[in-house]
Amino acid sequence: MSPVTDPVTLIDVDPSSSVAPYEQVRASVTSLVRDGRLAPHTRLPAVRRLAVDLGLAANTVARAYRELEAAGVVETRGRLGTFVVDPSSEGGRDEAREAAREYAARMRALGVSAERAVDLARAALADG
């Protein structure tokens, strides 16, 4: 797939979903990066602009960006903006960390406690 110039057109937030809006934004951007539709070094819209375009609160988009940065999918360069990280560069996204974040988000969405989620993960790893 060819990269897009405006990721806003591809991010869809379903207000009736049980998944939190910030998580929908995070998952959408992660998917766009993985699929190559958002190329490395692509600048993402500013938090406020994306929030307005998606009909969300700025804090919701800011949280999604923080989660994306923690997962190594994007990096924020101060006033320059937020950019997609080149996965081939040092500090690129760690797929295991991203999988763990997705698991954690899913467990939260299901209402599973952190302790129970860890127990479930340990059991699944032990089952091999």
- % residues in beta strands: 5-15%
How many DSSP helices? Answer: 5
Q: How do the SSEs run, as a string of H and E?
A: HEHHEEHH
Number of strand segments: 3
Secondary-structure-derived class: mainly alpha
In terms of quaternary structure, the protein is: single chain
Largest sheet: 3 strands, antiparallel
Give the overall average pLDDT.
Answer: 87
Q: How would you describe the shape?
A: globular
Q: Can you give the helix content as a percent range?
A: 40-55%
Order of strands in the sheet with most strands: 1-3-2
Fold and architecture overview:
The chain is mainly alpha-helical and about 130 residues long. It contains 5 helices and 3 strands, in the order αβααββαα. A 3-stranded antiparallel beta sheet has the order 1-3-2. Helix 1 (about 20-35) crosses helix 3 (about 60-70) and helix 2 packs across helix 3. The radius of gyration is 15 Å and the shape is globular.
